[in-house]
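To: structure subgroup
Subject: Chain for Friday's discussion

All,

I'm putting the inputs and outputs inline so they're searchable in the archive.
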Amino acid sequence: MSLDTARMGACATRRYYKFNMVTRREGIKTAALTALSYSRVLGANDRIQFGLIGCGERGLYVASIFQKTAEVDVRAVCDVFGDHTDKGVAQAAGAQPFTDHRRLLEMQGLEAVLIATPDHWHKAIAIDALNAGKDVFVEKPLTRLREEGPEIVRAARVNNRVCQVGMQQRSGEVYLEARERFVRSGLLGKISHVDCVWHGGANRALPTEPAQKPANLDWVRFLGPVNYRDWNPAQYLDFRAFLDFGGGKLTDFGAHWIDVAHMFMDQDGPLSAVAAGGVYYDRHDGRTAPDTISALFEYPGGFTVSFISLAVDNGPAYKVEFLGSGGRLLVDRNHYEFRAAEKGAEPVIQRFPGDITGQHVRNFLDCCRSRKLPNADVYIGHRAAQAALLANQSYLEKRRIRFDPQREEVLPFSA
C-alpha cells in the first residue's frame, strides 16, 4: 500500500510508524524542533533561504528552476570542485561558497537545501541537513544501498522536515491526469503488467583526462564513504559507470519508471526481483555498471513490472506502458496514449509540453509553507530505490531475490 494516497491501509501504517519509533530523548528533540519550526512558519511573501549542495550540471539546472520562482534566495553553494563552486556563485550572486556541506549547514537562517551530489553522498548529506532542521530536496535515487533508506526516512520524521525526492513524475500533470483518467477510473481494467523502457544510448569511452587531479578538487572528500583509491578521472566524471558510486541504470533510469508503476498501481514493494545483463559493449575501461540490463519484478495484487535499458542509439522511445484487460496506456514526461481493447477504437493521445521538474519544485516549495508531505516524500523515494536495488542484488548474485515488502527483508534462499 502506497503512502501516495491519504488512505493508508493498516500494513502501510505499520511500515510508516516503523520509521517513527523514537527514544524519549529523540522525542524531546522532535518536540523542540517542531516548536522551532512553528515559530518560523513561512508566510506567502517570505523568501526561503536556500543552499545548493552539488554544483554540477543537474544541480545548477534545478537550482535555476528554484530561482525562477522568485521565492528563494540562494545564499550558499557547495561542491568538492572549486570550478563547480565558482559556477554556483556565478549563478547566485552573493552566495557563500563551501567545499564541506557541514559548514554550509551551520549558516544562520538557512531553511532548505537542494542535494544534487553523486548518489554515494545522498544519505550522509540528507541526514545531516534534516538533523540541522533544513527542508530537503534530494535528487534521485535517494540511496546507494538498500539499508540507507530507513535511516533517511527516520531523520525526516524525527526532525519534522519536508523531504522531497527528485522523482518529478509524482508532480507532473501528464502523469496525474493519465492515472485519474484511465487507471483510477477503471478504464484500463485489470492491469497485469507494466512495461518500462529507458535506453541509455551507445557506450562512449570513459574519460582518461585530466591525468592529474585538479588542484582545487578535493578527491578524498568526493570519495566520502567509498573505499579510497587514487585519482581516477573516469570515476569522477562518469561515476554512474561504477557500482561503487551508485546503482547504474537500474537506479538512474529504473528508479524513475519503477516509481511510476508504484504511483499508478498503489503498490510500493515487490515480492521478488530478478535481473540479468552485463557490460556487453566492453571498452576495457574498468566500468562495472552494466550497460545492458533487464529486470522483472512481481508485486502483490497480481501484476509484474519489467524494466529494460540497452546501450543502443536506435532503440524504442522511453516509456512506461500499462497493459490491462481494458486496453493499454503509454505515458512519458510529455504525453500519454490510451488504446482501448476494442477493435477499431480511436486512440486517445494528449501532449504536455515543457519540463515537469518545475511542477515538482512548485510542490516542494508549497510543502515548505504548508508542512504537508510532498508528492515524492522521502518514504516514496526510499521504496522506489529499494526495488531498483533489489534488482541490482539479483544481477550481482545471479539469482532471483524474494522479498517481504512489509518487513522490508530479503527472504532466505528457496529450495
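Points worth raising on Friday:
The radius of gyration is 21 Å.
Confidence is low (pLDDT under 50) at residues 1-39.

D.
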